[in-house]
Sequence to fold (173 residues):
Amino acid sequence: MTRDELLLGEWACLGLLYDQRTHGFAVAAELRPDAPIGRIWSLSRPLTYRALDQLVERGLVRPVGSEPGDAGPERTVLAATRAGRARMRTWLRTPVTHLRDLRSELLLKIALAERCGIDIASMLDAQRERLDAQVATLSAAAFDPSGRVVDPVALWRHEVACAGQRFLAQWRG
Fold:
């Protein structure tokens, strides 16, 4: 990963600030394991603040004010910058590369795109095409001509790709 790439937790934080100004404590609450986004990708409060600091350092998020805390110090209100919003739109519209990232990254992209009102239909079409190609390649690697399994890893990846195909076929058709 290059210095310019974001971690999935940073993308989650940026997505939560895409169209809503709020403070880190509220972002952390959205990333708890029982919250809608946190069900997909959760972060502890310290890791959320660390991700927010990284986004500020990169100029993708900026402080825009403060408000009183419920029982503690002032809370810094953050908002996505123009550059942060542009990066988010680009990321959401880019298909997931690796099969291992379907469960986390693809689901996070879908959830954040819906939350932010960003159309990702063309990304989903591209993701379907990518999965179709992966299924064909992995099928050839997993099975011999008689249909017997010859590579358990290729079989596993084939099944994950097939599950991804079924998910995308059912998700908004």
About this structure: The two ends are 33 Å apart (CA to CA). The mean pLDDT is 94. The longest helix spans residues 121-142.
